[in-house]
Design brief:
- The strands form six sheets. Strands 1, 2, 3, 4, 5, 6, 7, 8 and 9 form a nine-stranded mixed beta sheet that branches.
- It contains 26 helices and 25 strands.
- Among the domains are: 69-267, Histidine kinase-like ATPase, C-terminal domain (Heat Shock Protein 90, 2-Layer Sandwich), CATH 3.30.565.10; 276-425, Ribosomal Protein S5, domain 2 (2-Layer Sandwich), CATH 3.30.230.
Length: 884
C-alpha cells in the first residue's frame, strides 16, 4: 500500500464553488451548440441556394437540333469502330457487285492505308456524286424490302461513315463505260484531290472493270479513337481473320490479302466454280484440319440429307421454301474429336452475313467439352439459311448481330445433331500409315538379309580358294591402315541409351566444391531463387560478381535439370560432407542440404520438368512471315556443310567453346557457340506455336529478374538512362502486355502478376543455362520490334536462340578460377572436380546437341567465319605416328 502515499492529495472544494463550476460549464456548452447549429444552417442554406441556381440555369438551356456534321460523325463512330469493320463493309459491297476476285492491300493494320479492289459491276458516273452520302443505296427502296432483302448492304451508311473518318478515294469502271473515273471524298461529299485543284468532279482515267476503294489515314480527325487502336499488329490479325472467314463462305471467289510493298500475299484463295469450302479451309488452316473435318447438314424437312451433294449452298435456295415450323437449313464443317487447337475458331454466316451468336457458340462448346481435352478447342464453320421474313438484320450498327425466329429451338436442334456425329467419330482414331512398295514382304526381310549375307560369305570363301589355287588370278586391292575409316556416324555408344538422370547421378556431375570455386551470376538473399520469384529482393553485392563464392549453375551439366534453387552463402556454409569418388583416392566435398544431392535433384525434376515428346512432327505453319523466315535460311544452305553435319562423328570437347569432330579422313574443330545459336534459331522457327514447355516450380518475378539484368555490365545501362526500378517496371508492363503473343506462339508463359511461369522447350531434354534468364528477359523487352509481325517474330526467335545456345563464358571463367586454385589447393582434387563437370557437359553435347545437328540447315557463312576449321587428316597423322 506504499504506492498510495505517492499519489497527490485530493483537492476539496465547497458546494458553492462546485455549483458555479457546473453552471459555467453548462453555459459554455450551450453557447458552443448554438454556434455549431448556426454554422450548419448557414452551410445548408448556401448549398441549397447553389443547387437551385444550377437547376435554374439548366432549365434555361434550349433543346436544339444537332448539326448534320455532328450527326454524321456520331454515326460514323458507331458503324466504323476499327479497320476490320471498314473492310467488312467494303467486302460486302464487293460481293454485292458479283465480284469474282477481291484484292486487299493494307499498311499498319489498315490505319494508314487500306485498299480493296474488285472486278464487279462498278459504279455509274451518274451515281458518283452521291455514292458517299448517307442513306444512299441501290439495294433498298422501302422498309418492307427488309423482309426479303438478299444483299449485304441496305442502309447506305458504309461509304458515308468511312468518308467522315478518313480520306476516301474511289476509282471505278462499269462494263459499258469507255474509261474509268476517279474521285476523292471527305465528309460524304466530293472534294478536290489536292489543294491546288478547285474542281471536285470525277476525273476520267485508265482502269479495268470493277471498283478500287482506297482508305487513308483512318480516324485522322478522331484522335481519341486513333490512340485506342495503336496496336497495329492486332488490327492486322483481325483483318487476316476476317479475310479467311469470307474466303471460306465464298469459295468460288478469289480472295487476296497482302501488306503494302510485300509481293507475297498472306491470304490467297484461287476461287473458281469447282472450288469447295473444304479446299479453302485446307489451304488457309492446313491439311491437318481439313482431313479431320466432318460435314454436317441439317434440314428439318429432310431428316436424311446427303452431305456430299451441293457443297455450296446459296442464299437463293431459301426462296419459296416449304419447311416446318423451324424453317431453316444448315451446313457446317466441324472438326472431329481427333483435332483440337489452343484457340477456338467459330465462324457463323446467317444468310451470307458474318454474325456473332454467343448462345450458339456456347452451346456447341459445351457439346465439344465432352470429347476434347481440357483447354483445347474445335474448329466450327456454320452456314445457316433462314427465310428473310424470319430474321431481323437491323439490330446492330455493324450488322454483327441478328435476331432469328425460334432461335432457342434451332440451337438445340443443331446441338443434338453435332453431338450425335461427334459421338460416332469418338469411337475411331486416325493414324498415319506408310505405303509399302509392291512385292515388299516385311516379314521376310530378316531371313532374306541372312540368306544374302550367307551367300556373300560363301562366295567370298570360294573366291579366296580360287585365288589361292590360281596364282595368276587378279588380287583384291589392299586397304592400307591410313586409308581405313574406323568411325561411323550411324553407330552409337552404350551411354547414349542410358537415362540422362542416371548418367549424371552415377557420375556425380552436379557435385559442388565446398571451397566456393563455383562462379554464379547472382545469389538469392533469402536462400532460393523462388523467393525472388515471389517478390523477394536479390543481393546486389552478389549479382554478376565473378569473384563471389556463389554456386555455379548446374543446368548445363545436368541435361534434365530445370530451374534449380540457388542456395545462399550461409546455407552452403552450414554443413558439408566428404564423398569418395571413383578409381582414385581423391575426395570431393559436397553439401548434404544442397539441391545437387541425388534426392533433391530427383524431387526438383519431379516438380519442375515436363518430359517432352520423344518424336516430333513439326506443325505446319500458316503465317506468311514465319514461312518467309524459314525459307530464308533454307535457301541459304551450304550443301557441303549440310553433308558434313549429317555424317560427322563426335570426337570430344576441346574446351567449353569448341569440339572436335571427324568427317571422313579429316579432323575438324567446330565453334559450338555459333553453330548452336543457329541451330536453336532454326528449331524455334520450325516449332513455332508448337513448343513443349518447361515449367518452374515457383513463378519468378520478372521485375526482380530485370533488376538483376540491369546490374549486369552486359545490359549496357548508364545513369543517363534513368532509374533502374522505373526501367524494370516499364519493361515488366511491356512484357505483360505481350503475354498472350508470347504464350500462344513461343510458350513463354507470364501470369497476370508479372511472373514468369515457364519457358519453351526448343530441344527435347535440353534445358538452357538459367544464369542467362535475366539478360534474356531484358533483351526480349528491349531488342524486339513489336510493331511489325515479321520483325517481331524474328526478334523473339533471335533472343531465344541466344538464350539456348551453348554459352562458354562463365564456364571458362570457372575453369580459370579452378586452375588458379591449383596453386594453393590439392591439384588432384581440383582436376577431378573439373573432370566431372566437363564430362557431364560433354555428354549433353554428344548425345543431345550433336544429333540435332542433322536437322540444321548450315548457312554459307559457316564456311568462312571460323565456325568449321579443318585441323588435320589421317594421312598427316600417319606420317607422324605411323599407326592408328
Amino acid at each position: 500500500m506504499d504506492f498510495l502515499k505517492s499519489l497527490p492529495p485530493l483537492q476539496t472544494t465547497d458546494s458553492n464553488s462546485t455549483t458555479a463550476a457546473v453552471n459555467t460549464t453548462t453555459t459554455t456548452a450551450t453557447n458552443t451548440a448554438t454556434t455549431t447549429a448556426t454554422n450548419t444552417a448557414t452551410t445548408t442554406t448556401t448549398t441549397t441556394t447553389t443547387n437551385l441556381n444550377n437547376l435554374i440555369n439548366e432549365s434555361k438551356k434550349k433543346i436544339h437540333r444537332l448539326t448534320q456534321e455532328v450527326v454524321n460523325k456520331i454515326s460514323a463512330g458507331e458503324v466504323i469502330q476499327r479497320p476490320s469493320n471498314a473492310l467488312k463493309e467494303l467486302l460486302e459491297n464487293c460481293l454485292d457487285a458479283k465480284s469474282t476476285t477481291i484484292t486487299v492491300t493494307v499498311k499498319d493494320g489498315g490505319m494508314k492505308f487500306l485498299q480493296i479492289q474488285d472486278n464487279g459491276s462498278g459504279i455509274r458516273l451518274e451515281d458518283m456524286g452521291i455514292v458517299c452520302e448517307r442513306f444512299t443505296t441501290s439495294k433498298l427502296t422501302k422498309f418492307e424490302d427488309l423482309r426479303s432483302i438478299q444483299s449485304f448492304g441496305f442502309r447506305g451508311e458504309a461509304l458515308s461513315s468511312i468518308s467522315h473518318v478518313s480520306h476516301l478515294k474511289i476509282l471505278t469502271k462499269t462494263a459499258d463505260s469507255p474509261c474509268a473515273y476517279r474521285a476523292c471524298y471527305l465528309n460524304g461529299k466530293l472534294t478536290p484531290p489536292s489543294p491546288n485543284e478547285q474542281s471536285s468532279d470525277p476525273k476520267p482515267c485508265a482502269g479495268v472493270n470493277g471498283t478500287q476503294i482506297t482508305v487513308e489515314d483512318l480516324f485522322f480527325n478522331t484522335p481519341s479513337r486513333k490512340n485506342v487502336l495503336k496496336n497495329t499488329v492486332d488490327e492486322h490479325s483481325r483483318i487476316v481473320l476476317l479475310m479467311k472467314k469470307y474466303a471460306i463462305n465464298n469459295p468460288t471467289v478469289s480472295f487476296i490479302l497482302k501488306k503494302q510493298g510485300d509481293p507475297t500475299p498472306e491470304v490467297h484463295t484461287s476461287g473458281g466454280q469447282n472450288s469447295l469450302e473444304k479446299d479453302v479451309i485446307g489451304s488457309l488452316y492446313g491439311t491437318d484440319l481439313s482431313k479431320e473435318l466432318k460435314i454436317i447438314t441439317i434440314d428439318p424437312n429432310n431428316p436424311n440429307p446427303n452431305n456430299d451433294d451441293d457443297d455450296n449452298i446459296s442464299g437463293s435456295q431459301i426462296k419459296n421454301s416449304n419447311l416446318n415450323r423451324l424453317d431453316f437449313t444448315m451446313k457446317g464443317f466441324f472438326s472431329s474429336t481427333n483435332y483440337n487447337s489452343k484457340k477456338i475458331n467459330f465462324i457463323l454466316f446467317i444468310n451470307g452475313r458474318l454474325v456473332d451468336s454467343k448462345n450458339l457458340k456456347t452451346g456447341l462448346e459445351q457439346v465439344y467439352s465432352k470429347y476434347l481435352p481440357k483447354g483445347t478447342h474445335p474448329f466450327m464453320f456454320i452456314r445457316l439459311l433462314v427465310p428473310p421474313k424470319n430474321i431481323d438484320v437491323n439490330i446492330h450498327p455493324t450488322k454483327s448481330e441478328v435476331k432469328i425466329l425460334h432461335e432457342e429451338q434451332i440451337i438445340e436442334f443443331i446441338q443434338q445433331k453435332v453431338d450425335q456425329e461427334l459421338s460416332i467419330s469418338s469411337n475411331s482414331k486416325t493414324f498415319s500409315t506408310q505405303i509399302l512398295l509392291p512385292g515388299f514382304d516385311q516379314d521376310n526381310v530378316s531371313s532374306s538379309q541372312k540368306k544374302q549375307k550367307n551367300s556373300q560369305s560363301s562366295s567370298t570363301q570360294t573366291k579366296s580358294t580360287n585365288n589361292n589355287n590360281n596364282p595368276t588370278s587378279r588380287k583384291e586391292p589392299i586397304e592400307y591402315a591410313k586409308d581405313k575409316i574406323r568411325s561411323d556416324s550411324k553407330s552409337q555408344t552404350l551411354d547414349a541409351f542410358l537415362n540422362p538422370m542416371d548418367y549424371n547421378n552415377n557420375n556425380d556431375s552436379s557435385i559442388d566444391d565446398n571451397d566456393g570455386s563455383g562462379i554464379g551470376r547472382y545469389d538469392d538473399v533469402d536462400g532460393s531463387a523462388g523467393a525472388a520469384g515471389a517478390g523477394g529482393k536479390f543481393n546486389d553485392n552478389l549479382i554478376f560478381n565473378d569473384n563471389s563464392e556463389n554456386e555455379a549453375p548446374r543446368d548445363i551439366d545436368n541435361p534434365l535439370s530445370s530451374v534449380t534453387p540457388i542456395k545462399s552463402k550461409e546455407q552452403r556454409q552450414q554443413q558439408s560432407t566428404t564423398t569418395t569418388t571413383t578409381t582414385t583416392t581423391t575426395t570431393a566435398t559436397t553439401k548434404s542440404n544442397s539441391p545437387a544431392s541425388k534426392n533433391d535433384i530427383k524431387k526438383l525434376q519431379e516438380h519442375t520438368f515436363i518430359t517432352p515428346r520423344k518424336t516430333r512432327k513439326y506443325k505446319q505453319v500458316e503465317l506468311t512471315s514465319i514461312k518467309t523466315l524459314i525459307s530464308e535460311f533454307q535457301s541459304n544452305v551450304h550443301d557441303g556443310l549440310k553433308e558434313f553435319f549429317n555424317d560427322c562423328v563426335f570426337v570430344g570437347c576441346l574446351d567449353h567453346s569448341y569440339a572436335l569432330v571427324q568427317f571422313g579422313k579429316k579432323l575438324y574443330l567446330i565453334n559450338l557457340e555459333n553453330i548452336t545459336k543457329e541451330l536453336f534459331y532454326q528449331l524455334s522457327l520450325l516449332r513455332f506455336s508448337d513448343f513443349d514447355s518447361i515449367k518452374f516450380s515457383q513463378s519468378l518475378s520478372i521485375y526482380s529478374l530485370l533488376l538483376v539484368s540491369l546490374d549486369s555490365p552486359l545490359s549496357g545501362w548508364m545513369e543517363s538512362d534513368g532509374p533502374k526500378d522505373k526501367i524494370a517496371d516499364y519493361l515488366t508492363k511491356l512484357l505483360i502486355s505481350k503475354k498472350e503473343l508470347l504464350n500462344e506462339y513461343f510458350s513463354i508463359e507470364i501470369n497476370e502478376d508479372g511472373e514468369l511461369v515457364g519457358i519453351p522447350q526448343v530441344l527435347d531434354h535440353y534445358v538452357p543455362c538459367t544464369d542467362n534468364l535475366p539478360i534474356f528477359l531484358l533483351k526480349l523487352a528491349t531488342e524486339v520490334e513489336w510493331e511489325f509481325e515479321k520483325e517481331c517474330f524474328a526478334g523473339i526467335v533471335k533472343e531465344i536462340s541466344s538464350f539456348f545456345k551453348i554459352e562458354p563464358s562463365f564456364l571458362k571463367l570457372r575453369d580459370t578460377q579452378v586452375n588458379n586454385q591449383q596453386q594453393t589447393n590439392s591439384t588432384t582434387t581440383t582436376n577431378n572436380i573439373n573432370f566431372i563437370k566437363k564430362d557431364g557437359k560433354e555428354w549433353i553435347i554428344q548425345h543431345l546437341i550433336f544429333p540435332a545437328f542433322r536437322k540444321l540447315s548450315p548457312p554459307k557463312k559457316f564456311a568462312n567465319d571460323g565456325s568449321v576449321i579443318q585441323i588435320t587428316t589421317l594421312d598427316n597423322l600417319y606420317k607422324v605416328f605411323e599407326r592408328c
